[in-house]
Amino acid sequence: MSHSSPLFKRWLSQVGADLAIEVLSDLLDTGAVFAIDAEARIVFWSRGAERLLGLRSEQVLGKHCTEAIHCEHSNDPCGLAEQGIIKDQYVKVLKAGGRGISLLRTARAFFDADGKFAGALEILRPESPAQPAPLPEEDVENFHGIFSRDPAMKQALKVIRNVAETETTVLIRGESGTGKELVAHALHVESHRHSKLFLAVNCAALTPSLLESELFGHVRGAFTGAVRDHAGLFQRADGGTLFLDEVAELPLELQAKLLRVLQERTFIPVGSDRSLTVDVRIIAATHRSLREEVKAGKFREDLMYRLRVVPVFLPPLRQRRLDISFLLWHFIERHNPHGPRRIVGIEPGAMKLLLNYPWPGNVRELQNVVEYAFAVGRGPELTLADLPPEFQENPPASFLSANTPATPKKNRSEASLILEALELSNGKVEAAAEMLGMTRVTFWRKRKKYQI
pTM of the entire structure? Predict the structure, then answer.
């Protein structure tokens, strides 16, 4: 039984019990706090509940528990009327979108003057306290499987969504693993060509002769081994979309043929004397600067302008710090149903390494790290030992010191680090705390200490 003084009761009457409960619930970093009345209808729903379950307060207030979150309650909520208190009971509830999640439930019942059940205050929390609460679903952009809550990436997705409705040629610029082909496919799906084929080729993966045949096709007898006619990608993609990945690697002799297709919509298969007409939308991608390739004499300037009508830049994952923890849990939740391992928490030290890692392989590397952890580790918590060797051998420096090399972290004040984290996260406290490897409560205390 907790103890309180008359002073506390007077203070509570001054600030208001509703505000006190709301603030107290906000201090619980990873849990959902809610209250039910005598009929088990939800009458209070914390911001932590919104983050953990993805359900906004207006979606659940006034609804019965079983209707709102499908928790394993009844009209006598799990025996609370008899027991009065429940601690660390395993329950399964539904998140937004209908996905089930296992949580620990702690609840305390209240009774009226006649001893009748009057309601309860409940807390749902992850099985491991290290599991971060995801941001509300409305804070995350989901565009055909491309997830982001980073402002720069959201801006890129806005451009992609708008240009998809046009016939404009798009050049996607981004490092390996940033999702260039996903973006290209999304452009196709959102266009009026979605009912036709989407075909892709990596221009760096084939020799010049094979690439020419793959793109433009050939006729029988065009070269040794050409025993029959072969329809190239341009012919097969007629009416649809052709994605040219790593277009900067396209040989100069093939750049002229590609330019002709873009200008005249015609091409001649290898070994043929007859031109074919096609209607194909070109989407290209590269991790190189085409302007620099033009200066080096490796790429045609006229072709660059034809391909680079609308350039789209995909920021690398190391510049999308808001996305790391979200994507991490996204991939974990994709693996969890397929066991034998089920991860419900991340060791704080492991999370700090993951957040500070520079991710040279971007989202693809993050996905591989999660797959590695599921393959080599066991138990409900992802630990340091579950991370690949590069994390053990060369622990990454803090992302803040990496972004500001002229000012080493050890020489910088804690207050300046907090200010920078808030700036990078656009004022989002949860994300800023994650960046610094702090809990939300610790971050709140530090801000109060430095009057930030």
Answer: 0.59
